[in-house]
Specification:
The chain is mainly beta. Helix content is 2%, strand content 47%. It holds the Pfam family RAG2.
């Protein structure tokens, strides 16, 4: 999972990187802060990578999850949700040693200043999901689509998670919306300074790629989806895995 941190308080642009699956079938639980800083007259780009330690209720190793930044009451926090991991060691057999399961549907919230992480269970998020899309604006995160191993499906899910960073304990509430997309493993990119995004590609089923594109707008009213004319896909893309 990768999350962008926009420059603030004199700090440079940076990225959070958590988890992931390696070619050796290892799944990571590490959190890194990648900072890009351009200095000097030659505009040389300097990249620094620092591992961040989390304490308290720490998310386990996983991949296929998302991280998003939220802002509330002058504070900033990171929201981590979803993903897959290996079966617990006590449940594995020789045949299922490398089998993966959806992680629990808990939402993890942590701050970067103190590295304190907390886990939150919400009744609306009762199924695990992976390879979904997450978009955030101010104190809200929208979870779009995703794949569930339990049902082997990609239901058109859309959740709005609101995070209030109160003094002491944060307050998280979740709402199920009706305008989701049936999609997994899509690419999402922001198109400018406003909260306007493009969702590109992905899968509608194991054997059917999503060749359509969508524009997503986050504003004071909520979330809006608009169809977008797709590019002229090459045959290699159309027929590839």
């Amino acid at each position: 999972a990768v999350c962008r941190l926009y420059p603030y308080d004199g700090l440079p642009e940076s990225y959070l990187i958590h988890g992931g699956r390696t070619p050796n079938n290892e799944i990571s639980s590490s959190l890194y802060l990648l900072t890009m800083d351009s200095r000097g007259c030659n505009r040389k780009l300097t990249v620094r990578c620092q591992e961040k330690e989390l304490v308290a209720e720490v998310p386990g190793a996983r991949y296929g999850h998302t991280m998003s930044m939220v802002q509330s009451r002058g504070k900033t926090a990171c929201v981590l949700f979803g993903g897959r991991s290996y079966m617990p060691a006590g449940e594995r057999t020789t045949e299922s040693w490398n089998s993966v399961i959806d992680c629990t549907s808990q939402v993890f919230l942590f701050d970067l200043e103190f590295g304190c992480s907390s886990a939150h269970t919400l009744p609306e998020l009762h199924d695990g999901q992976s390879f979904h899309v997450a978009l955030s604006r101010e104190d809200c995160v929208y979870f779009i689509g995703g794949h569930s191993l339990t049902s082997d499906s990609r239901p058109p899910r859309l959740f709005r998670l609101r995070v209030e960073l109160l003094q002491g304990s944060p307050l998280l509430t979740c709402e199920t919306l009706d305008t989701g997309l049936s999609i997994s493993s899509a690419i999402v990119t922001r198109t400018g300074p406003s909260h306007k995004y493009i969702i590109l590609g992905g899968y509608q089923s194991d054997s059917q790629k999503r060749l359509e594109c969508s524009t997503v707008i986050l504003d004071e009213k909520g979330i809006q989806f608009e169809p977008l004319e797709p590019p002229n896909w090459t045959p290699d893309i159309i027929h590839s895995r």
